[in-house]
Amino acid sequence: MAISKQQIEGQDPLVEELRDIVGDENVLSERDELLVYECDGLPQHKHLPRAVVFPNSTEETAEVLELLRNEGVSFAPRGAGTGLSGGALAIDRGVVIELARMRKILSIDPENRIARVQTGLVNAQLSRAVAHHGLYYVPDPSSQPSCTIGGNIAENAGGIHCLKYGTTTDHVVGARVVLSDGSIVDLDYNKCGYDLLGTFVGSEGTFGIATEATVKLSR
Fold first, then answer.
1. Burial of 39 (0-12, 13-18, 19+ CB in 10 A)
2. For the domain bounded by 105-216, which CATH number is listed?
3. Is the separation of the CB atoms in 148 and 105 below 8 Å?
């Protein structure tokens, strides 16, 4: 059997393909780098990932998931890793899709009190960005200064305000989601039929990865 140059050099062919998609600087594969991503805020359970990938767009995320589907490799989306349920663990040497670099505020509509953001945006940063409009983003988990909007969506996070105003699912009105086969869908709470958006919020990444979210703002 022929041995490839990558096998001789000890390189993982999958890692090289991931680098072709997102760039060398956006893939981690060395053991000491991966240790940071072996658990979330629940350190009792640890699983070392095969690699960590930092996509910069919905399209890159879709390409990565299509590759993983074709190779039969599992994945786990991750934001800030502050969750306490093990939702960001890459089981069976899966790949972590780290969205923390996708943190842009894409648009703010103060009149209609909505904002569209990339899901790597830190929760508290959204409230700071809209404060001059007299607005804020309601969901306020205890990890608010570091947790991400995407992580909040995955876990349906709440906080003290949820007692009066509800949890994340009550404040997300749309999401752009990459499914496990790499296809991209837009979920909208205004659409007729099944409440797919409501089903997606709180699914801990098992239905797909939200790369953009449209959320309500409050006064």
1. middle
2. 3.30.465.10
3. no
Both tokens of 87, joined, read 């939702």
Q: Cβ of 192: how many Cβ atoms within 10 Å?
A: 4
Q: What token pair was written down for 69?
A: 């589907």
| Residue 161 confidence class, pLDDT cut points 50, 70, 90 | confident
CB 133 within 8 A of CB 155: no
Q: Which helix (H) or strand (E) holds 151?
A: helix 149-155
Q: pLDDT tens digits for 178-203?
A: 999 999 999 998 777 889 999 999 99
| pLDDT tens by residue, 76-98 | 999 999 988 888 999 999 999 99
Answer whether 0.85 is exceeded by the pTM: yes
Locate all alpha helices (DSSP H) within 49-89, ordered by sequence: 58-71
Q: Domain segments of the chain: what residues?
A: 9-98, 105-216
